[in-house]
Each structure stands twice: as structure tokens, then as C-alpha cells.
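Subgroup meeting minutes
Present: P.N., E.W., G.H.
Scribe: E.W.

1. P.N. recapped why we're keeping a running log of single-chain structure predictions: easier to compare across weeks, and new members can see raw inputs and outputs side by side.
2. G.H. added today's entry (296 aa).
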Amino acid sequence: MSLAPRAVLVHRTTEYEELVARHGTHGQAAFFLSSRGRDIEEVAERHRRARRALAEVTAAVPLNWRRALLERADLDRFLFAPEDVIVVVGQDGLVANAAKYLDGQPVIGIDTDPGRNPGVLVRHRPRDAAALLASAGGAADELTMVEAVTDDTQRLVALNEIYLGAPGHQTARYRLGLDGDRGVVEAQASSGVLVGTGTGATGWLRSVWQERGGTLPLPAPTEDRLLWFVREAWPSPATGTSLVGGGLTASAALTLTVESDRLIAFGDGIESDALQLTWGQTVRVGVCGRRLRLVG
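Output recorded in log:
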């Protein structure tokens, strides 16, 4: 007998909750903000909207379904099941936070603050939750993801981008090469390497792309193509700057061999969940075989 679907409602602690937790009471948090020319009511109203949205989405879950409420900080400890339907209630970035832990489960993005969020990944309103849950097993956009795999089989997956560089944003030293480039590699010293997807092309990757003049075509979110950029490559007698950007198809990969005591690789801005890379270690970055199934 198959299990009923489980709706996993992913949310995050609001700014208001963080302020009250830090200062102890609403009044103390209000005093702290007022001393800096801010009104706590603005933050409190966003909190109320977020909690109303979460309550409305929770009420829309069918009575015969199982359900789980999951805070962002617990994502890496939660065991997702194949029959789960993931409902992200919050900002676009919360979808990216959840994506790395999923393997084909449908994801519904609910925007708690329309007009403040871009709505790239949280495309729907709370009132749409019931209809979306009813059709969650149907058509969905298959969004491309990026992965990094080390020579000792560590693996990192991200929806937007993977950054490889030195912790603390110091100079990263490594050797960079491309598949199919006749084995050519270049020793580099830089602020790190960014490899992103079409979804990431709406965020950090786009800002680097614009700085470089926007000459490379940006990939679509569902396209099996990535863009990569070396940030602030430094020319010297021992390091070059000829390999500083380009595209990667599904069959290609970027290879980086560490020539520093320590580098890290992290995805979607979560530096606390990073691969630790040591001298001589090699990591390959390319299109991930998994996709994020985003409903609507």
C-alpha cells in the first residue's frame, strides 16, 4: 500500500523573530531599531504577512496528506522522501536553499511578500496553494543545476552557482583547465571562480556577466549550459589571465587543481556548507544530472 503524499512546508525565521530573539522583547527590539532611525512596525508587518501566508498554505494541504513543517536551518538534517511535495513559503533564495537536498520531488514556490521578492522561483500566491498541490504530480519546469565533484568523491550541488576560492576572500591559487582544450591548463591567482546556471543568471552570476560587458549569451534556466568567470585574475610571471570566462555544455567540465593550503567550494551563498579543498586536490565543475522540478 503506497503512502499518502507528504507536504513539506519550508519556511525561514523572519527578521522580526531574529530581532526579538536577539534583544529579548518586542519593546527592546523596537528601541534598538528606533535608535538607528528605523521603525519596527515595518519589520513586524512583514513578519505578520509571512505567518499569514504560512497558515493559509498549511490549511490548503489536503486532509488525507501527511505534512511536515521545516525551518531553513534544519534542511541539512531532514530526510526527504520520494513521495514528498515541497512547498517553499518565502523568498526566491529559500527555493535555492532547499534544491540541493532534493532529487526529483516537485517544488511549489509561494511568495509571502509580492513586490519585494523578484518572484523568479516563488511564482505563486498563498491562495493558489490548494490547486497547485492537487496538480503537483503534473508538468513542471526542469531547472538546470550545477555540481562540483572532487577527486575524493565529495560532491556539492547548487541551483544558482558554485563559488570556488579562498575562505575570507583572500587570493586563491590554483591551476585551471577545460575539458576538450587539448589538456591546456593555466596557473592563476584570483579572487575565485564562479560557475552558474540560467537560474543563477538572475543574481550573482548576472552581476559578474554585466561587469564583463555581457558578450556571452546567458543560459535559460532549463538549458543544459553554464557560464563561468574568474574573478579578478592577477597576471604575474607565474600566473596568467587567458582563461577568465566562458560557457560549459552538458558534456564539458571546468577542472581546478588547488595550489593553496586551503580553498573552499560552496553553493548558493551558503559558505557554512562548503567543500574543503587542500593542496593538490582536483575538483570538476559542470552541469548536474539532477534537475529541480519547479511547478508552474
